[in-house]
Amino acid sequence: MDLIAAQPYITVHREINSIEQIAFEQERTINLFNDKIVTQQHEFHLQEVLDISYRKIGNEGGLLYLHTSAGLHSYIVKTSPQQFIESFKEYKNSNY
């Protein structure tokens, strides 16, 4: 299992108490291996991943979308995932 590319993403957790709402960000990583894509919560075999796309939102970051045979999964990214997407498409086109 060889690591081909990695892309940082964040998750946001909110806590609400009687006077305020507090948001906590956790940085995680999406890893592209030669047979699967792995996140903190999911593991997708490359045959299941149909496409990866990105939509920029605001001045920094956006949403990275994994289009899979089981549905659409979105991830908040603060840096451009263009290299990750290109690595996925090059690897998938040459091996599947």
Give an overview of the whole structure.
This protein is mainly β and 96 residues long. The chain has a single domain, classed as PH-domain like (Roll), CATH 2.30.29.30. The chain is built from one helix and seven strands; from the N terminus they run E-E-E-E-E-E-E-H. The chain has a four-stranded antiparallel β-sheet. Strands 5-6-7 form a three-stranded antiparallel β-sheet, covered by helices on one side. A hairpin with a 2-residue loop joins strand 6 and strand 7. The radius of gyration is 15 Å and the shape is elongated. The model has no long low-confidence stretch (mean pLDDT 94).
Tell me, rounded to a whole number, the average pLDDT: 94
**C-alpha geometry:** elongated
Q: How much of the polypeptide forms β-strand, as a percent range? A: over 45%
Evaluate the radius of gyration: 15 Å
CATH superfamily: Pleckstrin-homology domain (PH domain)/Phosphotyrosine-binding domain (PTB)
How many domains? The number is 1
* SSE order, one letter for each helix or strand: EEEEEEEH
Enumerate the strands of the largest sheet in spatial order, edge to edge or round the barrel: 1-2-3-4
Helix content percent band: 10-25%
Going by CATH, the architecture would be Roll
Strand tally:
7
Number of helices: 1
Largest sheet, if any? 4 strands, antiparallel
CATH topology: PH-domain like
CATH class: Mainly Beta
The span between the termini is: 16 Å
Main structural class: mainly beta
The low-confidence runs, each spanning 5 or more residues with pLDDT under 50, are none
